[in-house]
Design goal:
The protein is of the alpha+beta class. The protein is built from four helices and twelve strands; from the N terminus they run E-H-E-H-E-E-E-E-E-H-E-H-E-E-E-E. It has two domains: about 100 residues, Roll (Mannose-Binding Protein A, Chain A); about 100 residues, Mannose-Binding Protein A, subunit A (Mannose-Binding Protein A, Chain A), CATH 3.10.100.10. It is found in: Secreted, Extracellular space, Extracellular matrix.
Length: about 200
């Protein structure tokens, strides 16, 4: 499977534990366990924002120690913030997905789309607009690679690169995050997902 950090449109550190659990479910995934995050860190996950884990702890994985992330002179590892109030404390979340029961694809379309047009274009193609968990699963489990930014269901725009190259993701294989643009701008394509019955 694959672990991915998630924060909503509101920006970082906006989810209490219960909202974090729901955010992962909404993206076709579940909140990650410590063991899953640890495995992801050993595979190179480096993320400087703290996120909830399934045991209610708040942690983050660092492979390249640097000043804003615990200090330059610290050792790589999974940094532990400990346990926080599940109702009042707000962080990001680490989600985990391993199931991939469908076809994930970039929809070839004659024009760029607004968010609403993107949803309709996938429906017209017999699919749904893809979720964040689905783009990470396609990227990690299937090696999906596409240098086209596309809308996803949560209103974010991302693209998956498994073969790093200039102008796409020069230094690393990653799901690149463009942001949460204004939904009315026709600037992007769309990623769709068609579930297998």
């Amino acid at each position: 499977g694959v672990v991915f950090p998630y924060s909503p449109r509101l920006g970082r550190y906006n989810l209490n534990f219960h909202e974090a659990q729901q955010a992962c479910l909404d993206q076709d995934s579940v909140i990650a366990s410590f063991d899953q995050l640890y495995d992801a860190w050993r595979s190179g996950l480096d993320w400087c924002n703290a996120g909830w884990l399934s045991d209610g702890s708040v942690q983050y994985p660092i492979t390249k120690p640097r000043e804003p992330c615990g200090g330059k002179n610290t050792v790589p590892g999974v940094r532990n913030y400990g346990f926080w109030d599940k109702d009042k404390s707000r962080y990001d979340v680490f989600c985990f997905t391993s199931n991939f029961n469908g076809r994930f694809y970039y929809l070839i379309h004659p024009t760029k789309l607004t968010y609403d047009e993107a949803i309709q274009a996938c429906l017209k193609d017999g699919a749904q607009i893809a979720k964040v968990g689905q783009i990470f699963a396609a990227w990690k489990l299937l090696g999906y690679d596409r240098c086209d930014a596309g809308w996803l269901a949560d209103g974010s725009v991302r693209y998956p690169i498994s073969r790093p190259r200039k102008r796409c993701s020069p230094n690393e294989a990653a799901v690149r995050f463009v942001g949460f643009p204004d939904k009315k701008h026709k600037l992007y394509g769309v990623y769709c997902f068609r579930a297998y019955n």
